[in-house]
Amino acid sequence: MKIIDLSHPIKNAMPVYPGDRDVEIVREKTWENDGYRLSSLTCSMHIATHIDAPSHLSKDETMILDVHLNRCIGRSVLVDVRNKAQIDISDIEQYPIEKDDIVIFLTGWSQYFGTSAYDDHPTLSESCAKLLVEKEVKLVAVDMPSVDHAPYPVHRLLFEHGILIAENLCNCESLVNRQFQMFAIPISIDAEGALSRVFAIIED
């Protein structure tokens, strides 16, 4: 068994989605002064690798606390769409996507994380999203900051059908031509999104 970490670490001064507050990790207590260590974190729920619940961008009121973990764990299909500016229905038709699968889109965009180029990312077309809805997948994951741009039609379409979205993955190249299960574990919080540890388990 091999574990592949697909999560960006959370650090001070890390990049955030345009308009979101900066990440602030404060060392409240130190070993030298207090005999123990204690840190606090101030940030949006949409930094680094995270999961969006339907309440983020739809009238659906489902929060992360309402999401059962079985929606975040399961058989996964990696869709290799590197060098594509827009991901269309023709890019996924040949993949064996089944009901309740987790679909990961490998765009290669994680290489730009922390640069200005990162925000000018590829997008999923609405027709692509509609096919994922028809196939009844439970989670869509991407190695870029979003599945689309404002006004976020793909977010809204997926959320209207209860499909979760995981964003800002990394290391997805390690999953090419591998069979694996993905675990996208959000912190248990009463919010529309959550910081998450995402990883894949490959059976050797």
Describe this structure in words.
By secondary structure, the protein is mostly beta strands. It has one domain: 3-Layer(bba) Sandwich (Glucose Oxidase, domain 1). Helices cover 10% and strands 29% of the residues. The chain has 3 helices and 12 strands, in the order E-E-H-E-E-E-E-E-E-H-E-H-E-E-E. It has helices at 31-34, 126-134, 153-160; strands at 2-5, 24-29, 38-42, 50-52, 73-80, 86-87, 102-106, 123-124, 139-142, 164-167, 180-186, 193-202. A 7-stranded mixed barrel has the order 4-10-9-7-5-11-12. A two-stranded antiparallel sheet has the order 2-3. It has a two-stranded parallel sheet with strand order 6-8. The longest helix has 9 residues, at 126-134. It is globular, with a radius of gyration of 17 Å. The model has no long low-confidence stretch (mean pLDDT 97).
Brief summary of the model shown:
With 204 residues, the chain is mostly beta strands. The chain has helices at 31-34, 126-134, 153-160, and strands at 2-5, 24-29, 38-42, 50-52, 73-80, 86-87, 102-106, 123-124, 139-142, 164-167, 180-186, 193-202.
- Please tell me the CATH architecture by its name: 3-Layer(bba) Sandwich
The name CATH uses for the topology is: Glucose Oxidase, domain 1
| Ends apart, CA distance between termini | 5 Å
What is the radius of gyration computed over CA atoms, rounded to a whole number of angstroms? 17 Å
SSE order:
EEHEEEEEEHEHEEE
Low-confidence stretches: none
- Tally of individual domains: 1
Please name the fourth-level CATH homologous superfamily.
Putative cyclase
Q: Helix tally? A: 3
Average per-residue pLDDT, rounded, comes to 97
- List the strand order in the largest sheet: 4-10-9-7-5-11-12
Percent of residues in beta strands = 25-35%
Compute the number of strand runs.
Answer: 12
Tell me the major beta sheet: 7 strands, mixed, barrel
Instruction: Characterize the overall form.
Output: globular
How much helix is in the residues? 10-25%
